[in-house]
Amino acid sequence: MDNHQKGLLLTALGVLIISPDALLLRLVNVPPEQLVLWRGLLNMLGFWLIVVARHRRHWPQAFRVCGLTGVGCALLFTLGTFGFVLGNHFTKAGNVLVILACSPLIAALLSRVFLHERLPLRTWVAIIACLLGIGLIVLDDAGSGSLTGSLLALLAALGLAGNLTLARSKPGVDMSPMLALSGLFTALLTFAWSGQIILPEGASLGWLVLLCLVLLPAGFTLIQRGPLYLPSAEVSLLMLLETVFGTLLVWLFLSERPSNLGLVGGAIVLLAMIIKAVLERRPLAVNPVRA
């Protein structure tokens, strides 16, 4: 298997693994602040176990090599976690997922400003189209009283995009171990906010353990490593799978159908992202990174 095939497999598998995220969040019956807290605690444990399994007795070095850049990535991923979980509490899961799908374009803007990367015209066109689609979703939410959810989803997209941009500033370094530190940050900040820990009961505890201890650590570890082998255009295209499958899962199992205006906005965002990714999908040399 060559590096390109490896990158495709890692990223696609990771995205498919995290696709039930929004659905399982709906099935966990706990207050939103407790959901964020337990997500942080279980993510911390799950990501740390993966780091130990990969690096064995050398696992502390996997954290040290990330340096302060890794700490920044962890903080930005924490911001994304808060935005995603709380956004799902205030608005439809499909709206959150569609807005989150714009994070690669936000990353392109951040890369232009902070890394001085030039953006082709098609990227600017895609950004404008996505802003139009997001505007329709936000307009729809404003009418239904869930504007807060859309704004939190935008915060999540900004956090994930910032993490991606910062990680790219230190090429050749695997930042996935810092996702464990992000889990710790998430738990500590939420505990400082709520001041209590409530243990979920029954099925909620089972769904929470499945999602936050197993699916998210496994999926995001694979996604974080995928771009080491793939051009960013292909990673962006594969990341759309979460938006599509995540929305379909919530619609199928919970009958949470997006509104017509939300569907139009989502279609505009997805079409813009797909066209951009397909236009950029060409053989590029990507330096492999050893595991």
TrEMBL record:
<feature type="transmembrane region" description="Helical">
    <location>
        <begin position="205"/>
        <end position="223"/>
    </location>
</feature>
<keyword id="KW-0812">Transmembrane</keyword>
<feature type="transmembrane region" description="Helical">
    <location>
        <begin position="65"/>
        <end position="87"/>
    </location>
</feature>
<feature type="transmembrane region" description="Helical">
    <location>
        <begin position="93"/>
        <end position="114"/>
    </location>
</feature>
<feature type="domain" description="EamA">
    <location>
        <begin position="6"/>
        <end position="138"/>
    </location>
</feature>
<dbReference type="InterPro" id="IPR037185">
    <property type="entry name" value="EmrE-like"/>
</dbReference>
<dbReference type="Pfam" id="PF00892">
    <property type="entry name" value="EamA"/>
</dbReference>
<feature type="transmembrane region" description="Helical">
    <location>
        <begin position="36"/>
        <end position="53"/>
    </location>
</feature>
<feature type="transmembrane region" description="Helical">
    <location>
        <begin position="178"/>
        <end position="199"/>
    </location>
</feature>
<dbReference type="GO" id="GO:0016020">
    <property type="term" value="C:membrane"/>
</dbReference>
<dbReference type="InterPro" id="IPR000620">
    <property type="entry name" value="EamA_dom"/>
</dbReference>
<feature type="transmembrane region" description="Helical">
    <location>
        <begin position="235"/>
        <end position="254"/>
    </location>
</feature>
<feature type="domain" description="EamA">
    <location>
        <begin position="148"/>
        <end position="275"/>
    </location>
</feature>
<protein>
    <submittedName>
        <fullName>EamA family transporter</fullName>
    </submittedName>
</protein>
<keyword id="KW-0472">Membrane</keyword>
<feature type="transmembrane region" description="Helical">
    <location>
        <begin position="145"/>
        <end position="166"/>
    </location>
</feature>
<keyword id="KW-1133">Transmembrane helix</keyword>
<feature type="transmembrane region" description="Helical">
    <location>
        <begin position="260"/>
        <end position="279"/>
    </location>
</feature>
<feature type="transmembrane region" description="Helical">
    <location>
        <begin position="121"/>
        <end position="139"/>
    </location>
</feature>
